[in-house]
C-alpha cells in the first residue's frame, strides 16, 4: 500500500520470480548448493525513512531442493531441518540501516527449528518496473551467512584426512522480485 504522506509501499514476494538459495562447503573444497521452492513474505519499504522499512519471510523447510532426492530427504530429516516437526523457518527484520545509494543492512531474527538468532542481511534495492499487462514490481538482492550449528543443525561426518563433510557456515543469497500490494480500502 502506498500512503502519499509517508511514501511507504508494501511489496509481496513473487515466489515464481524469486530465488532463495543456500550454499555450503562440501568435502572442504567444493560447494554444494540448494534452494527452497516454497516461501512467501512482504517488504514494507519506507522511501522517506528507510530505517522504518521492515521485512517478514516464511520458508517451508520441506520445500528444500538440491537436485538430489536422497540428499533432499536427508536434509528434511531429524539430522537437519526436521521438516515434519518444524515445517517453517522465518525471518523478521528488527531494523534497516542505509549504507549509501541503494544498499542497506537488514538486521533481523532468523528462526530455524524454533531457535532464533540475530542475523544481518546485506541488501540492495535493484529498482522497479511494470510487468507488461501486470503489476508494478521491485527487485531486491540480499546475502548473509550464519553458523548452522547455532540452529541445532549439527549432523556431520568426520573425513578420513581431517575436517568434516559439511561446513558449519551456510551462505544465503536471496534474489527477490516483489509485486506492489493491492491498495487497501
Describe the structure.
With 185 residues, the protein is mainly β. The chain has one domain (8-178): Lipid/polyisoprenoid-binding, YceI-like (Lipocalin, Beta Barrel). The protein has 1 helix and 11 strands. It has one helix at residues 69-76; strands at 8-13, 19-26, 30-36, 39-46, 54-60, 64-65, 88-100, 103-112, 115-130, 136-147, 169-180. An 8-stranded antiparallel barrel has the order 1-4-5-7-8-9-10-11. β9 (115-130) and β10 form a beta hairpin. The radius of gyration is 18 Å and the shape is elongated. The chain starts with 7 loop residues before the first strand and ends in a 5-residue tail after the last strand. The model has no long low-confidence stretch (mean pLDDT 93).
Topology overview:
Blueprint: E1 8-13, E2 19-26, E3 30-36, E4 39-46, E5 54-60, E6 64-65, H1 69-76, E7 88-100, E8 103-112, E9 115-130, E10 136-147, E11 169-180
At a glance:
The protein has one helix and eleven strands. It is mainly β. Strands 1-4-5-7-8-9-10-11 form an eight-stranded antiparallel β-barrel.
Amino acid at each position: 500500500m502506498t500512503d502519499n504522506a509517508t511514501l511507504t509501499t508494501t511489496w509481496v514476494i513473487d515466489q515464481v520470480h524469486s530465488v532463495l538459495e543456500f550454499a555450503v562447503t562440501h568435502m572442504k573444497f567444493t560447494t554444494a548448493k540448494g534452494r527452497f521452492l516454497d516461501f512467501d513474505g512482504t517488504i514494507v519499504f519506507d522511501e522517506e525513512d528507510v530505517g522504518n522499512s521492515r521485512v517478514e519471510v516464511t520458508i517451508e523447510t520441506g520445500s528444500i531442493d538440491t537436485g538430489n532426492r536422497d540428499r533432499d530427504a536427508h536434509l528434511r530429516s531429524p539430522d537437519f531441518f526436521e521438516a515434519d516437526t518444524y515445517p517453517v523457518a522465518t525471518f523478521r527484520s528488527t531494523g534497516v540501516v542505509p549504507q549509501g545509494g541503494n544498499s542497506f543492512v537488514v538486521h533481523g531474527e532468523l528462526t530455524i527449528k524454533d531457535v532464533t538468532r540475530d542475523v544481518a542481511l546485506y541488501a540492495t534495492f535493484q529498482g522497479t518496473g511494470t510487468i507488461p499487462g501486470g503489476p508494478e514490481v521491485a527487485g531486491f538482492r540480499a546475502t548473509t551467512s550464519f553458523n548452522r550449528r547455532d540452529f541445532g543443525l549439527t549432523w556431520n561426518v568426520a573425513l578420513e584426512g581431517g575436517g568434516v563433510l559439511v561446513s558449519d557456515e551456510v551462505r544465503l543469497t536471496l534474489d527477490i522480485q516483489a509485486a506492489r500490494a493491492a491498495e487497501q480500502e
